[in-house]
Description:
Elements: H1 5-34, H2 37-49, H3 53-56, E1 64-67, E2 73-77, E3 81-82, H4 92-102, H5 114-127, H6 137-148, H7 153-160, H8 164-180, H9 183-193, E4 200-201, H10 203-211, H11 220-229, H12 242-258, H13 264-271, H14 294-307, H15 312-317, E5 321-324, H16 328-341, E6 349-355, E7 362-367, E8 370-371, E9 378-379, H17 396-405, E10 413-415, E11 420-427, E12 430-434, E13 444-446, H18 447-453, H19 456-466, H20 470-479, H21 491-496, H22 511-522, E14 527-528, E15 533-537, E16 558-559, H23 565-576, E17 599-604, E18 610-616, E19 621-627, H24 639-656
Parallel strand pairs: 1-5, 3-4, 8-9
Antiparallel strand pairs: 1-2, 5-15, 6-7, 6-19, 10-13, 11-12, 14-16, 17-18, 18-19
Helix pairs in contact: 1-5, 1-8, 2-8, 4-11, 4-12, 6-7, 6-8, 6-9, 11-12, 12-13, 16-24, 17-19, 17-20, 17-23, 20-22
Amino acid sequence: MSPDAPARARVLAKLAATIVLAGALVAGMLLPFVGGTGMAARNSASLLDALPDALTDETPAGNTRVLAADGSLITMFYRNNRTPVASDQIAPVMKQALVAIEDARFEEHNGLDVQGTLRALATNVAAGSVQEGGSTLTQQLVKQTLVQTADTPEERLAATEESVGRKLREARMALALEEEYSKDEILTRYLNLVYFGEGAYGVQAAAQRYFSVDAAALTLPQAAMLAGLVQSPSIDDPITNPENARERRNVVLRSMLGQGMVTEAEVAEISAQPVQVVQGASPANGCVDASIGGFFCSFVEQYLTQELGISQALLENGGLTIQTTLRPDVQAAGDQAVLDTVALGDPLVGAYTAVEPGTGHVLAMSNNRRFGCEGPECESVNFNVVPSKGAGSVFKVFTAAAAVERGFGPNHVITTSEPYVSRVYRDGSGPYDVVNVGSSYPNTLDMERALYMSSNTYFLALEDQLGSVEGPVRMAQRMGMHFDAANQYPADTIIEENRGSFTFGTDATSPLDLANSVATLAANGTRCEPTPVTAVLDRTGQPLTGEDGQPVVPGDACTPEAVPARVAATMTSMLRKDVEPGFSGATGTRAYVPGHQIAGKTGTNQNRDSVAFVGYTPQYAASVMVFSPLQNQDVGGFGGALGAGIWGDAMRPILSAQQPVPFPAPPAPPAPAPAPAPEAAPAGTGPVEVQPVPAVEQPAGAPVETPAPVPAEAPVAAQPAG
């Protein structure tokens, strides 16, 4: 027996099977069309009814784009790198090359080409191997669409199984497509869909990957090479197998010559040349590749999937456009300010988070880490969002706001001893007491001065006068704080256990929550939920809708008067004195930007394992936290130096480029609340009305804000000072 006999036998078997299939196709599908135009018209509708959605969509979905507020690209999300283009954005020579090598009778058939199939069979038998395929471009489009849009194993099997049934289904769909779409539409869809290797789906991605040009600019040799990749993109890859790619390109050129598309001179000149590749980089994919704001991007992805209910599959395959709130200028300024203070990859975390008052739009999330990569400078945990360490005396803002709402004004005076022992709150079974750090605190202070000096004893005494921690806790929630993370005490637990340490910010706190809470004050009491997204558009440019037919992005979610406007204005008036010049003992003056009205508050946790600062203007609210995420490490500074310093450095270039905007005028002060009747203090506690906490770090000549000892009652072993 000849050694070629087995191979010829296999080819003959394929020939026989294919002849049977061709006969079935002709009898089962072509008969209605050759039986008369009336019958064809009657049957085309039923064929179209069977088309899946993937085949009736005229444009394949491309990469999802994530855009900053100014329209610049942050990153993309995609499973298959594809950028669909219109017909007039594809070089005509690219269309010619593809037709020449894949379907020479494309313009003549109606989706099925029996003549071409039989010719291919004869060629294959004569050669003893498969030299030509019998599927038309329309049939290939059907198969590729069904394969690439399959979501389940069953759908993938149905799209790829070797069976007469699948071939029949594909053939019927090909006929239906030809009834509905023009030849150019089918060819354009095919070129936007097919895989060209090297992760490039569609001709635009391929042109960029192999030649660093757009599909409209492809030349004859480039188009011939790309057309040759369709059947075997790995084998004929010009990057890894340049000789294979050259030979395949030349096959395409000869096919074009045979169809009169090119001249013999062109073929001879190009065929002698090696393939010339100018590799383009693959486009950014995911937050690890974000051009700016990697941690903001991570927050966006979480928001899209968890808050808006967009599936990961739709995010990666849907060709969406995500319009975000990120301000590149605010982000870049925050990045620089953080890195100027806390080096990239430092064991300490420096986090700067900015929010727009009145909308909740998240403007920036800066961090001294790179998102999602490998290496000591990299991190996947978003420390701008997750609660990690306490914010110290920043929480005095909530106690002060609760007191103002109760009728205690900025001039409310309390005299305290040192240490001050609470008459209301307990440290386990014993008394709860605090001290101020340093000797710069008078025993008698009013609320305004106690707030900007950050007096511990005053604020524990103020909590005593409120009678319960419920007011400060509920005020914090109304301003935008959350207490629902695994490493936080729930708000109800803090209230039930009446934890007096609440005002000293010892519990783990989210930097985003801190920024959003003071944004409520900046917006005159209007609280808005933080949002990083303003719109999600589908691949047609229309708002993406949910099952209810409504856009998945509902718009800004704001609650006017979450805090009474008079309370917000009073708090702003007091907090300005912690930042703006002229107030002895203020702890946040390093955040000051000349000419602008800025309110703020510093915070330092026990043992200085975390420091914080919150600051705001009418247009911007931002928080800064510096802390050790894995252990209790001294950060080497206080909230007034590290925190306020970073805030000032970040906001200075932004505010300096804008005209100052004033805060609303504070309301006239109410009549002073009657002083509570003196009570007998526990032995050794000193005067009943007591005074406050340590003033945290200071500019030169001002008292240094430092942490006070933490009462054992505090859930987090830390006691802040300003």
